[in-house]
Amino acid sequence: MSGLPLLACSLRSGLFGSVRNGGESTTVKRVHPLACRMQMEVRDAVEADAETLGEIVDLPADVLRNVIHDRTVRVAGDAEKTVGPDADEKTRADEIVGFVAYDVRGGTVHVTQLAGEEQVAKKLLAEPIRFATAESFNVEFVVPVSDTEVRQAAENAGFDPIGYGPRFGEERTRRYRYTIS
Known about the structure:
The protein is α+β, with helices and mostly antiparallel strands. It contains 7 helices and 10 strands.
């Protein structure tokens, strides 16, 4: 188990540091409490979500509003708070913990954005995979090499690294593919 981070949860804060594991120190990653409860609802994004999505990825709400209009965008949120007669749009947006955006070009589903902690991201990656499976398409996306959490989520979801992708500024990227058999 040495060298591998444990995914640890707290239903209150989700914050952890390191723990002793059989006499050796093991890094424990912070996991959003919803990932622990696994009672996430994944739903289509609506325009009212744009500001929250922008805050998650540090982009203006107008940019995310365009993404919502131009691509398929699915968001993960607390199922207990985002459904039902008392869940207004503001409540729904406040409970978002991650999202995935994707589109289709040339017979391939392209993941264009993915945000959320590893377990949330893995669950969100199931959305473009589900769509691609129904259409017999492969899924591809490009991840900055420095984003180890997203790279790990991709590999855990069954994506294979297929080489380096384009540079984003000075950042190298790695290209991933999920092949539908």
